[in-house]
Amino acid sequence: MATMSELLHFPPNGDILPANTAVLAIAIITGALLLLYRWALPTPIPGIPYNKAAAKSIFGDIGPMVQHTKKTNRLYDWLVAQNVQLNSPIIQLFTRPFTRPWVVVTDFQETRDVLMRRGKEFDRSKFFSDISGGITPENHFLMKTEDEFRRHRKWVQGIMTPGFLHQVAAPHTYHVCMDLIRLWEQKARLAQSHPISAEGDMHRTALDAIWSIVFGADSGKSTISAQLDLYSSINPSGRSQKIQMLWHSCQRHPIDQQSTLCSQSPRAQNFLVSLFAAHDTTGTALTWALKFLTDNQDVQRKLRAALQSAHATAFAEKRQPTVQEITGSVIHYRDAVVEESLRCSLTESAIIRTAMKDVTLLGYHIPKGTEVFFMGNGPSIFTPAFDIDDSRRNPTYFATNDRIGSWDTNGMADFIPERWLVDDGKGNKVFDAAAGPLLTFGLGERGCYGRKLSYVEMKLILTLIVWNFELLPCPKELSGYGAIDKMTHGPEQCYVRLAKVAM
Ligand code: HEM
Fold it and tell me: Which residues bind heme (predicted)?
């Protein structure tokens, strides 16, 4: 009679048993790995378009995204390019393993509705706090829109009142900028019509301005005035090493004070973040503005003519317009140039929010916790909008009639300040901030808190620069439009060739 092992085809000594066990174990491990792999694959949010190949890899869209950022130093143009490629105003991207996809929306009207009216559903982004919260974790910038945020916000609210803007912020900015004008006179003397880099000076001017606005510092101790002392004292054969040494020593002072502030109270952190938020953004926007004015000589001439006509007394008296004359004047073309510079600068290219609960966006279900990127650098602002059926919009979208106009689809991406000027019905062209879409400051309760201050600064600084200097065209090699995404979207190159305006 056959033994049990013969019946089961096991050899009597049982040698094969471990091999079978091994096969079984391998099969189980392979099955488990397969299950694990399938579990680790991105889980798309139903219905929202995505890159099909990305959904088949646990690394999702990471490969192409990293390749792009490594090659270009930019992220946001890649995000919006995926909307265009997938031909949809809303898409999802798998950018981090084991987490929800990012949702990317590129439609200004929808974005505006969300930011202005759906703040309870979409609040300050967790992703944003993760990348920028390390230095000042208790800053209101990072908080959800709750009581604590509003309490913190109160601590800094004074710096945006009209009184403070005109009586404190404007004079400080003016003094800092006059130092810049004097510095550039020295630089122009030394450069003798050669182009000079302007990016650092724009950032330092913005830093000095906000520093003196917040701390009431004497502009005589600013980074610009320190440079001014130095450049005034050298002749064209001056030694650049000395400049470097002095430059570093004059920068150390503010940096030490910042780090002391960092470790202090949440109130100090709020001021510190205002410094960062104000300096880098305004500096970047000014840098772009100089490039646009340099490359659009007709706009520059028109702006100078508008300024000289509005400040006719100062022009006739061959002097600088005073701070009161600048802040007290209505100059539509100047305001249009500032707004168009901000639009085309893309200083901030995306506004990010976290879905606070399960919500619906453009007809799709978005699970709680999803990060949503609202893009300001693509269709509906710089290229024609996607066609979106009204049935996909949220009821809040139809609750008001205050929608912003849209841009003429011709030349949407071009630098044309005139797009902000509308007919007032009496034959005059007047500046209208609602003429068309702009997302550079975000919108709604969590939109940029310092927007008014940045307008005061930009109007003053651009007025004084264009009043004093012609920004002559620069060689092509120094006039590129490459950009880098850091905390802001800054130009790779910004050079100016300065000639003093004859008065
Ligand atoms: C050209 C200049 C500036 C640009 C382009 C800019 C842009 C922005 C953007 C895009 C946001 C996020 C908005 C959102 O999430 O909806 C923001 C927030 C903020 N900005 Fe600005 N900003 C500028 C200047 C300033 C200045 C001068 C200050 C001065 C204090 C400032 C203070 C802030 C603060 C405190 C927040 C956080 C608001 C909140 O969380 O509620 N910004 N800014």
Answer: 448
Closest CA to ligand 1's atom 42: 450
How far does the centroid of ligand 1 lie from the alpha carbon of residue 204, in Å? 18
Measured in degrees and rounded to the nearest 5, phi and psi for residue 81 equal -65, -25
Q: Which atom of ligand 1 is nearest to the CA of 160?
A: 30
Sequence-distant (6+) residues with CB within 8 A of 97 are 40, 58, 59, 60, 62
Q: State if residue 173 touches ligand 1 by the CB under 6 angstroms criterion.
A: no
Q: Which residue ranges make up the annotated binding site for heme?
A: 448
Residues forming a β-bridge with 102: 93
pTM for the complete prediction? 0.88
Domain boundaries, the chain: 41-133+349-410
The CATH T-level fold of domain 41-133+349-410 is 3.30.43
Mean pLDDT, the chain cut into blocks of 10 residues (503 residues total): 48 60 88 84 96 95 97 97 98 93 97 96 86 69 87 78 93 95 95 94 94 73 84 68 45 38 55 78 98 98 98 98 97 98 97 97 97 97 96 91 87 97 95 96 94 96 98 97 94 97 88
449 CB near ligand 1 (under 6 Å): yes
Decide: 352 and 125 in contact? Cβ < 8 Å: yes
